[in-house]
Design a protein that fits this description.
heterodimer, A: 85 residues, mainly beta, 3-stranded antiparallel β-sheet, B: 329 residues, alpha+beta, 4-stranded antiparallel β-sheet, 31% strand, globular
Chain lengths: 85, 329
Amino acid sequence: MPTKSTLPSQILNVGTIKLYPRKSSHANQIHLMNWEGKLLAKYELDRDLSNIALDPSGRVVYGFAPEEQPKLVAYKLPSPLLTGQ
Amino acid sequence: MTPQKTVCHFGIANGKLRNLLFVTVAGLCFCACQPNAKKAETEATGDRAILKSTELAIPSDSLRVASQLVVLDSLLVFKDYKYNPLYEVYNLKSNQLMSRFGKVGDGPSEFDPYAILQNLPGQPGGLGFCMRLKFRYRNLGMADLANGTENYMEAGIKLPTAFQQCVLMPNGNYLRVGIFDGRYTFADPKGNLLPPQLDYPFAKDLANLSFGAKAMLLQGSLLVWPDGQRTLFAYRSFPGWEICQVNGLKVEKKAESLQSIPLFSDVTSGDIISVELKIDNIDGYVGASVNQELIVLLYLGRSEEKYPRKSSHANQIHPAFANTQRWHN
């Protein structure tokens, strides 16, 4: 019976169904839209995040990086985005 | 290993090191003053830029699993899974921990461990707490957050039925996202539910699924435009979202992106429903945040090569989710 810590690297048996669990739900892409639903930009991040928060100014995205030593990080958004270019 | 050797080594290299250091610092200063210095924060690779992170200087040794980050002015508020207290407040300017609050428990004024933290639309500096287990909603102001004391709040309003998300709107009513009884439902300030509006997506296609499977598939994040006139719901299990216009107590869909219907109707094995929406099937927006102009979605794309599904059931499900990738390419 695998322990929680070994699950990502082992096969998890659920009844007769064998699954290869994904390592995590942490993501490293952000999509930016306006309130009309228009996609403005897509960016890749240099770290995997599990949560984000946009600064009210719209210039910075804060995130939680669930690494071995968890970190709170910030990403400065490119300024042309703020003018919709 | 002797002190003399160490001193001698530095003594010989000291002049060269000083010159090298001067040149390096001068070079760095020169580069930093150039107009294109911002390239240090973004790096173009192919057709998509990579954003570079900066670690916050706040003391984060005690961090475990932070979630539900919210920025209020210069305060960063988030939920950390330490339990008691549940929430932490940091000042982003002074890099100091301001307060911890939120006692988890069964008491009327205590927090639900599954509470959702959110900005309050129409109330700058206000936070809402959506208690999914207790069916309750309560709010808090910035002054309460910054005072550094434990906050025991009133129990908050109780809503009569289960909900996935709930937000206190500027008009004093509560906008609730359900799962099975209509997509959006307002509750009045006393908690009385008004008639539901809009059906949940794929309602007809998912009609034969178990409640649990529908709940898993349709979970996501509800966010409200700061002035309360528009809402965003971003789906966690597939790359879809919907934007609605709120006029008084009326919710109207303005835009949506529900790229494909997961083909669960092709799957006839009952038990598969309980496993098909596990983490390796999630292909949607695992996080979202908004301000007056922008919506930022944290997207989890599936890496099919790295994490292949090996069950025979997965072969049936896999194409359904794969179809949703086209919108992102």
